[in-house]
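Provenance

Sequences were taken from public entries as deposited. Structures were produced by running a predictor on each sequence independently, with no templates supplied. The record for Putative alpha,alpha-trehalose-phosphate synthase [UDP-forming] 9 from Vitis vinifera is shown for reference.
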Amino acid sequence: MVSRSSYTSFLDAASGDLLNFPQTPRTLPRVMTVPGIISDGDGNGSNDEDSDIFSSKCREKKIIVANFLPLLAQKDLNTGRWCFSFDEDALLLQMKDGFSSETDVVYVGSLKVDVDTSEQEEVAERLLAEFNCVPTFLPPDLQKKFYHGFCKQYLWPLFHYMLPMSPEHCNRFDRFLWQAYVSANKIFADKVMEVINPEEDYVWIHDYHLMILPTFLRKRFYRVKLGFFLHSPFPSSEIYRTLPVRDDILKALLNADLVGFHTFDYARHFLSCCSRMLGLNYESKRGKDVQEAKRETYAITERINANFGFPGYEPVVLIDHPVPFYEKTAYYALAECCIVNAVRDGMNLMPYNYIVCRQGTPKIDEALGITSGSSRTSTLVVSEFIGCSPSLSGAIRVNPWDIDAVADALNIAITMPGLEKQLRHEKHYRYVSSHDVAYWACSFMQDLERACKDHYSKRCWSIGFGLSFRIVALSPNFRKLSLDHIVKAYKRVNRRAIFLDYDGTVVPQSSIVKTPSPEVISVLNDLCDDPKNTVFIVSGRGKNSLSDWFAQCQNLGIAAEHGYFIRWSQSSNWESSPLLMDFDWKRIADPVMQLYTEATDGSYIETKESALVWHHHDADPDFGSCQAMELLDHLENVLANEPVEVKRGHHIVEVKPQGVSKGRVTEKILSTLISDGKPPDLVMCIGDDRSDEDMFESISSTIYSPSLSAPPEIFACTVGQKPSKARYYLDDSADVLKLLQGLARASSMKPKCSTQIQFSFESVA
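Predicted structure for Putative alpha,alpha-trehalose-phosphate synthase [UDP-forming] 9:
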C-alpha cells in the first residue's frame, strides 16, 4: 500500500508528464527471461523487449552517473569557443584506475557552467566524441530548485543531522522543490537511456542528488545492472523519518542491485529505516544553514586574530575560495599536523591526501630540501563523526563538541616525539596506499557484478506505480498453480496427501473473524470423504481452537502448534512431540513479553501449551515492528541457554521448543504413510509465511525414499508472489478456496467410462 505522502508526491511530480507510470495491471506482465527471448507479456514496450536490438558483442561499458561531470569548462571571450579538459582531481575520473583497460567508461552528468540553448547540441556532440561524456542540460530554474533547493536545503542538512531547532530556522516542506528533484532525475534517466546497452552495461549512480534515478531506470529496463553509492552520511531512522518523502526515496534506492555506503554505521541506519518505515526484514529545516555557518566561521577567525595576532602575523588564515590542486599539495606537504573536526561528515578524503603528500615525491622532496629516503612523519586529529575515522587507527580521535579535548589533542599532536609521529605515519601510509580510489572502485564493481549475475536466470514482475514501482525477480519455474494442471494429476493418481496452512491460506490473514467459513468446512469435508485423500491442517494455532473450529470435519487431520500436537482424525487421540520438553523457560520469557505488551498499545500475548507468542498486528506499524525487533534481541539473550527457538513471523514474535516445526510434522506424516504401505502418488502443500517454507522443503526431501518405486508428483504452493521454496503460487486465500473446490468436484465425479459401459449393457438387454 502506498502511503499518503508517497501518493501525494507522485501526483505532484506527475503533473506535466514528468512521470508516465501506469497503475499496475491485475495480471502482471511477464518479461524476457533470457537475452533475445520474450515470454508472453502485456506488450507495453516499456521493458527489456527492445533490448535485443543492441549487439551482445560490444566492449564492456560502465556508465558513471553523477550530478557533475569530471570536466573543467571555460569559454574563450574572444573567440566564443568552449574549452574543456578533464578535472584530474575529480574522484569520478580517478575511479577508472579500478577498471579493466578494456572497459569503456561513459560519464553522464551536468556541467558546472551554463551553456546557452543554441550551443547545447554542438557541446554535447563534442563532449561525447572527445571525452565520452553525456551532458544533462537542466534549465536554469530547474537546476536552482533541484540543486540549491531540494538537495541543499533538505537532503544535505538532513543527512548531516541538521534539524530545525527553532521556527526562525525552519521552512515548511516545499513540494515544488521535490517536484524539481523528480524532474531532474528523470532528465538524467533519459540521458542514460541514450547510451545504455541494458544487456551488457553496468550503471553506477553517485550521491544523494540522484537517489530516485534507480526507479526510472528499473522501470525502463527490468534487468539493468544498477549500483548506487552515497558519498555522505546516512542518518539514523529518528532523523531520516522527518523527511516527508522518506518512503519514496527508500523504495527508489531499493531498485538498485547494490547500494554502497562509507561506513557500516551508515549502512545499518539505511537498513533500520527500511525495516521501520517499509516493514522490510533484513539479515544482518536546518538549528544553522551554510551561509550562517560561514558567518560564524568568519567571526571566530576575526576574534582569534584580534586577540592573539599582531601586525604582520595572523594565527588563523581563512581560505574561502577554490584552491588549485598544486596549492593544496603544498599545504599538506608542509603541515606537521592535520585536523578534520566536522560534527558530521561522509568519507572526507582530506586526511588521506595529507598522508600521501607527507610521504612526498622526488619533486616535493627537492622543493622542500628533504633527503630522498629519509623517514617521514605526520599527525592527524580527526572527529569521531567523520566516515574515515574508523580506518585511521593511528589518528587522535576527538569529540568535536568537547572544545577542551580538541585543544588537548592538538597539543599532543604537535608535541609528540618524532619516532611516534613516524610510526603513526607509516601505519597510515600502508593503509592509504593499498586502499585508494581504484581499490574502492574495483571492489564496488566486483560486488555489483556478483549482485547482477543471476539477472537473466529469473523471471520478473513489475509491482506498484510511480515512485513505488519495484521489480520482483523469482525463479523461472515459479508460476501460478493452474486448476486444470493439478486436476489432471489429481484424477490420475490413487493416493494423495494434502497439507494446508490455516491463517493466510484457508482464511484471509487480514480477516478479523478467524473461524473457518462454511465454504471452507464444506470443501474440507468433501476432500476428506474421498478415501484416496489424507488431508491435514498444519497450523501454529493451539489444539483447542483448531479442534473446536473443525469439529464438523470428522476425517480431517490436524497438526497444532507447528506440529507439537498431531491428530489423524476426530476419533483419534492427540499425540504430542516425542521430544522430552521442559517448559521452565516460560517463566523467563513471559515477564519479558509482559513488559513489551505494557509498552506497546495494541499488542498481546498468546499462551499455548508448547509456545508463547507476542502479537503486534493491531499496534502502530512502525512502533510495533521496532518493538518486535527489540523483543527478539531481548528474548534471544535471556533464553540463550534454553532449549527453545525465538522466531519472528508476520506481526508476531514466537518462542517455541527446538526441533518443532511444520517441516518436521509433515515429514513424520509422510513417513508414517510410507511405512504403512500407503505412499502418496501426489503431495500438495499450500502455505503463506516463513514457517510454511519448512513444509515445502521437507516434502521434497521425504518423498524421495529408496523404498518407493516412483516419486510422487509435488505441488508446493505459496500464497502471494514472493521469493519461496515453492514452485507455484496462488494470489490469495480466495484463490486457495477456488482450487480446493475444484479438487473436491474432481473427487465427486464418476469416471465416464463406467457410464458408457452401463448404457451399452442396457441397450443389449
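Residues 530 and 747 are 6 Å apart (CA to CA).
Residues 1-57, 752-765 have pLDDT under 50 and may be disordered.
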